[in-house]
Amino acid sequence: MPRAASICLVSGCTAKTSHSGRCAEHAPPQRPWARKSVRNQLRDSRWERHIRPRALARDAFACVVCGERERLEVDHVVPIAKGGTWTLDNAQTLCKPCHDAKTLRDRRTA
Q: Whole-structure pTM over 0.90, yes or no?
């Protein structure tokens, strides 16, 4: 069932609203950098639902560098910015300190 039309939240304005609760005249400016594209939303969703849990299970829920089992993160072996992929073979489980150290090394070699 469609939603009922509503009026702008700005006092005195009786125009119909857009997605922000305000009419087109009073809507906040669009911030294209603040929204993920549909492609990125699907990619992130796939990473969180499929790749990340499989990488954790494959690595026995432990950091592949030091063996720590707390504060785990799943990292790209080859960073996306350097041509890495969003696949399981490019994922590894790292603890937070090891992930931070790897990220620092990756940035220095950029």
A: no
